[in-house]
Amino acid sequence: MKNQITRRTLMTAAPAVALCGAAPAAQHDPFLVHYRQWIEARAEWRRVIQLPEHDDWESPEVKAIEDIEQDAFDRMSLTIPTTPEGCAALASVIWEWHGTGFIPTAPEYDEECALPQNRILLNLYRALSGEMEIPDL
To answer: Does 84 score more than 60 pLDDT?
Structure first.
């Protein structure tokens, strides 16, 4: 029979199923530590850059935040997620770097999100995170 599930098929798929399966709540994922630092640095950069006294994007404070963001990103790039939540975070980082290049309010945004390569990436994020919304970083 074609497409029959065999014991060999199940054993081959087991590692992928384990990665996407439910993980214990107490399980530590080092990727998430770096991801959260990266997200916090990005939020702090946006907050600081909007202050009237920080119209200079080259200020020491802004550069220090950018250094924290880059360091967290570099550590993420060297860390393999170990939980479904970590895998969803990785998918959101990939979306940020390779998804649509437009902000959600841009006229082209929906069209870009509908491209096959972006739908595939969004499906990965949605499957891992359980969220249907597009990652907003």
So the answer is: yes
Of the CA atoms within 13 Å of residue 66, those in its CB half-sphere come to 8
Query: Is 91 a residue whose pLDDT tops 70?
Result: yes
Q: Is residue 131 scored above 50 in pLDDT?
A: yes
Taking each helix axis from N to C end, the angle separating 30-49 and 60-77, rounded to the nearest 10 degrees, works out to: 160
Is the pLDDT score of 106 beyond 70? yes
Average pLDDT over residues 91-106: 85
Length of the chain as a residue count: 137
Q: Cα separation of 22 and 131, whole Å? A: 15
Q: Is 87 buried (19+), middle (13-18) or exposed (0-12) by CB count in 10 A?
A: buried
Residue 84 half-sphere exposure, CB side, CA atoms within 13 Å?
Answer: 16
From 130, 74, 90, 136, select the one nearest 109 (Cα to Cα): 136
The pLDDT, as a whole number, for residue 3 is 42
DSSP H or E segment with residue 60: helix 60-77
CA-to-CA separations, 71 to 1, 42, 113, in angstroms, rounded: 52, 12, 29
